[in-house]
Amino acid sequence: MRVSRHDSVGLIVDIQERLFPHIHQHEKLEKNTKILIQGLQLLQIPVLITQQYTQGLGQTIPSVAEHFNADHFIEKNTFSCCDESNFLAELNRLNKKFVIIAGIEAHVCVLQTVPDLVDNGFVPVVVEDCVSSRKENDKKVAVERIRQEGGMVTTYESILLELCRVAGNETFKAISRLIK
Length: 180
Hints:
Number of helices: 8
Helix content: 40-55%
Number of domains: 1
Distance between the termini: 26 Å
CATH architecture: 3-Layer(aba) Sandwich
Largest sheet: 6 strands, parallel
Shape: globular
Oligomer: single chain
CATH topology: Rossmann fold
CATH superfamily: Isochorismatase-like
CATH class: Alpha Beta
Strand order of the largest sheet: 3-2-1-4-5-6
């Protein structure tokens, strides 16, 4: 199944200040997620961003937040994004099929969101090098289960080039500069 640029939305899950420093390979996650976000924006793909219990976990980290308006964040206290009615309403309003997912923690909020997206008729596309957990093995097991639950697993470079579909145009050139 090919992921279509015109039928996709991005989802950045809970990359927040108080949890982020404890995430396995968080510097790499930050770098990769920024590239993914910039690529999705170049492709004019809308991106939703959630914050889990902001009072306790803090705001989205500045390097991610700077790409969005302050009112763009969807507050949630549920693990699955789909259990937050504002999130599901916004996702349904956008009327897209593919949900391209980055964020933390892979074994909690990302994982629990995947089967709920499938149950609601969406195709979750989890960007493996843009998700992580505090423990490396939790991420590894989560990615295996994401596949079992019907989620697609990819990398940021692969999905950005799949969304481009052709080389040689200005969008491809801009994406190419991001991923090199």
